[in-house]
Amino acid sequence: MLNNKKGLKKRDLYLDKLIAFQDTEPVKVITGIRRCGKSSLMKLMIEHLRAAGISDEQIIFMNFESMEFRSMDAGQLYDHIKERKPKDKTVYLFFDEIQRICQWQDAINSFRVDFPCDIYITGSNAYLLSSEFATYLSGRYVEIKMLPLSFKEFIDFHGYRLIERKSPAGKTITKITDSEDIIYDTEELFEAYLKFGGMPGIADVGLDTDKAMTLLDGVYSTVVMRDILEREKRRGQRQLTDADLLRKIIMFLADNIGSNTSATSIGNTLANEGLLDNNRKTKPAAQTVQAYVNALLEAYIFYEAKRYDIKGKEYLRTLGKYYIVDIGLRNYLLGLRDIDTGHILENIVYFELLRRGYDTAIGKIGNVEVDFVASKANEKMYYQVTQTMASEQTRERELRPMMQIRDNYEKIILTMDRTFSNSADGVKIINIVDWLLE
Questions:
Q1: CATH of the domain at 44
Q2: What is the pTM of this model?
């Protein structure tokens, strides 16, 4: 049963980060793809401030998608805030999609200099944190990188809750229940997550395929038109002039998540289809493609995982992989199809590792590859992701890279299977759904 109760759902993973930096000098910059929940996170922070005793006169929220502020420039923004801020009190400033204001960074820097304030801003394009902005604030900002819903958040947003019980054998069994106390296996909800993805807005329309795809169409169109094509106009650059070519590159990357990819290989494929001109008198296909790919990375629709040489302990320049920020968006682009489950699971694990704060790369050791090397501080973990370990050939393929790694960091294989022991040759084997619910 879908919980249709309105109200803000908690995103504690991100809210806790904002709270940790409350009343500190750095500007809090919330980034991520459109409609992933940045505006709601601001509102959650405002709720936290009110609960902590901050008065409404100290809180100013402005959404620059509104027509009310559409014609405003940096000087007018500064005057607007100066007139409304309380005297002799800290003012908490929340600016949603501030990149729509020309020279907005001038205003932000002036607020910091001229009166006591705590500043929070959002943006749907990495251009927000360009070198120009970084120069103005010279390190005085902290970035909160927001992603669509994790599987655990998906369960909560759609009105379900996790329950745990002990089996007669003493094992902990996790089930999911709805508001009518109907019990579901975790795999049932995971199947829905694989289909609909994690854009928060789907919780408002329900787990209905037509409505969900309509919502995802709106997300896609907004990202392409506002955060990619309009971005070029704001920068005064016209590298991206072909919306149809942009869509072709998006489709290619979506269809090849988790595969070794380069601008050259994309360009060659598209040139073979007659979509790019490889004539030497024109701009090289790889250079053209790279400009489009960079725009997709800046709009947070795709993320690039670099390759890491485990023995040499250095990042490699060639053949990274691209992952799409939301599997629901991929299903919208390519259609629902029961293929490529292994790469879909890999895509989900990649973003879960990012949520958990790991720097995540593709591992290379000799002639074999480890799906992910996840590291932070003094911690490092190696992950392989596979749909099943049922065949001996698959088990040998997944274990081989792990056996070649000589350090003592933890090694884990994530799989949909539940029929294997929890370790093999010192490598942990964990069900991927259980891992996502940890």
A1: 3.40.50.300
A2: 0.93
